[in-house]
Amino acid sequence: MSDGPKLEIQMLQDRVLVKLSPEDGERRSSGGIVIPATAQVARRLSWGDVLGVGNSVRNVKTGDRVLFNPDDQHEVEIQGEGHLVMRERDIHAVATEQSEHGTGLYL
């Protein structure tokens, strides 16, 4: 970027800006075996942190953690870090402190 004025990013319509959670790399099985991020047994969904939402987004807010398929999203680089842009309908679940229709499971 140039040395011009800083521009704030505002998401439009039903778009959500998400930063992937750091733990979406290597993971361990319940037995302690390291599973590399490149291993694919099935299509794996990922958790990410919501950084911004458009004015038509109804069920997700900034600060929520969301579950989604990263393969179906658009990636954008902001300040040298990768972020994903998706539609609200592409989000499978929301982890939030306040919920009306929770599952009883917690992260």
Q: How are the secondary structure elements laid out?
A:
Elements: E1 15-20, E2 27-28, E3 34-35, E4 46-53, E5 65-68, E6 74-78, E7 81-87, E8 91-95
Antiparallel strand pairs: 1-4, 1-7, 2-3, 4-5, 5-8, 6-7
Structure, explained:
This protein has a six-stranded antiparallel sheet with strand order 6-7-1-4-5-8, with no helix packed on it. It has a domain at 13-21 and 43-98: 10 Kd Chaperonin, Protein Cpn10, Chain O (Roll), CATH 2.30.33.40. The chain starts with 14 loop residues before the first strand and ends in a 12-residue tail after the last strand. With 107 residues, it is mostly beta strands. Helices cover 0% and strands 36% of the residues.
- Which strand order spans the largest sheet, edge to edge or round the barrel? 6-7-1-4-5-8
- Summed up, the helix count is 0
Please state the overall shape, judged from the principal axes of the Cα atoms. Answer: globular
Write the CATH homologous superfamily of the domain at 13-21 and 43-98: GroES chaperonin
DSSP strand (E) fraction?
35-45%
Poorly predicted sequence stretches spanning 5 or more consecutive residues: none
In CATH, the topology of the domain at 13-21 and 43-98 is named 10 Kd Chaperonin, Protein Cpn10, Chain O
Global structural class? mainly beta
**How many β strands by DSSP?**
8
Query: How would a crystallographer describe the biggest sheet?
Result: 6 strands, antiparallel
State the CATH class of the domain at 13-21 and 43-98: Mainly Beta
**Do you know the CATH architecture of the domain at 13-21 and 43-98?**
Roll
Q: What does the average pLDDT come to? A: 82
Pfam families: Cpn10 (PF00166)
InterPro entries: Chaperonin_GroES, Chaperonin_GroES_sf, GroES-like_sf
GO molecular function: ATP binding; protein folding chaperone
Family: Belongs to the GroES chaperonin family.
